[in-house]
Design goal:
The protein has 373 residues and is an alpha+beta fold. It contains ten helices and twelve strands. Helix 1 runs antiparallel to helix 2 and helix 9 crosses helix 10. It is globular, with a radius of gyration of 24 Å. The two termini are 42 Å apart.
């Protein structure tokens, strides 16, 4: 029986609610960037990982900016032309996957739309004339201007899309025959409606540098994107890659879940956070929390497997404790929560079960991030 995910969707039915939603996410993504910087200082992320992750966060910020322009005049035009934003009210708090797909389709047609739309300068001039002549708000022209800005942004910005193909960064040579890379890719998971980033440290013992290898690199990109599924364990992804590419050796694999986002105003909570956010909702902008989960799979050693009469290749043996981490398929899972100071105070007062061992990144009144275990 097919699951109907639309029952978990919520439509933001007016421009005011939509603007509040995007303003909240703009602040949250900025805090995420600060958390990435703090994680580097705490040596949980190395410099290359932190740089890549912050790049994805910037792209995610651009995506939300683009969507905020698209829905700027939500339900203001009055003729059903302007679309309304749909978010996942239950599991993620983010826009639903279909919004990202539509944005990608819009981006492909952005140049054509810009040719047919008047310039910003012309639209603003027409808006002034309309106000002077008609003595009313030029809502239809405002809508046209918002769409003009939306398509300009799609045409220029590096967006976080539903699928962000793998890229490889050379990080050094272990020997003359063995190069090291940080390979990264990301997707907007269609089941959970949460942005997910993957980082893989791998060693390359092939004859040709991986990003310039026209035989291996396209296969690597296709393979990794096909495995970018939240239901798959990291060990399944890594072992499958290790088996398919004899001269590529995945030493470490990390997966970052950049959500869900919980908000008393926009989402439905069903766990201990429900009462926490309800009590923290008295002050504007302090009724949210964002989950940040990092799964890490680390190679512990190698073993050799025969791949022909006179040839063998190395296979990674991953560090997984079957008693504790076996079910999760990872060496380590680190769960964190990013939340404002008021929500953190309520959380500490209530001390709900299951929340004590989660690291908290607390946004202070001066927007400085503090880390608590």
């Amino acid at each position: 029986m097919k699951t109907d995910y639309t029952k978990d969707h919520k439509t933001l039915k007016d421009a005011q609610a939509t603007r509040r939603y995007f303003a909240k996410f703009e602040r949250i993504i900025k805090h995420l960037d600060d958390v990435a910087e703090l994680s580097e200082q705490e040596q949980f992320l190395n410099k290359a990982e932190a740089t890549v992750l912050r790049g994805y966060l910037m792209s995610l910020s651009y995506t939300f900016t683009a969507l905020s322009y698209k829905f700027l005049m939500a339900n203001r035009v009055g003729d059903g032309v302007s679309a309304l934003l749909n978010i996942d009210k239950s599991d993620s708090g983010f826009p639903i996957f279909q919004e990202l797909l539509q944005m990608a389709a819009d981006a492909m047609q952005a140049s054509n739309h810009l040719k047919s739309l008047p310039s910003q300068k012309r639209l603003k001039k027409d808006m002034i004339n309309h106000i002077l002549m008609e003595q009313e708000a030029p809502t239809k022209l405002q809508y046209a201007l918002s769409q003009r800005i939306y398509y300009e942004f799609l045409n220029d910005a590096q967006l976080f899309l539903s699928q962000n193909d793998p890229q490889a960064i050379w990080t050094g040579n272990n020997t003359m025959e063995r190069r090291s890379y940080l390979v990264h890719w990301a997707n907007y998971d269609s089941r959970t409606n949460v942005p997910i980033v993957y980082l893989m440290e791998l060693e390359d013992s092939g004859d040709k540098a991986l990003p310039r290898d026209e035989r291996r690199w396209p296969r690597v990109q296709t393979h990794l994107m096909a495995q970018a599924v939240s239901d798959l364990k990291l060990v399944t992804i890594a072992r499958g890659f290790d088996q398919d590419f004899d001269d590529l050796h995945p030493i470490r694999l990390r997966r970052f879940y950049l959500g869900p986002m919980y908000s008393h105003a926009f989402t439905e909570q069903h766990g201990p956070l429900r009462d926490v956010l309800a009590d923290a909702s008295g002050e504007p902008g302090l009724d949210w929390a964002l989950a940040w989960t990092v799964e890490t799979l680390q190679s512990a050693s190698v073993e050799y497997e025969k791949t022909g009469f006179f040839r063998s290749t190395e296979r990674q043996v991953y560090d997984i404790d079957p008693m504790f981490m076996g079910k999760q398929g990872a060496t380590d899972v680190r769960q964190s929560l990013i939340l404002p100071h008021r929500a953190y105070q309520v959380l500490e007062e209530k001390k709900p079960a299951g929340m004590q061992n989660i690291r908290k990144y607390v946004v202070g009144q001066n927007s400085k991030i503090l880390s608590y275990k």
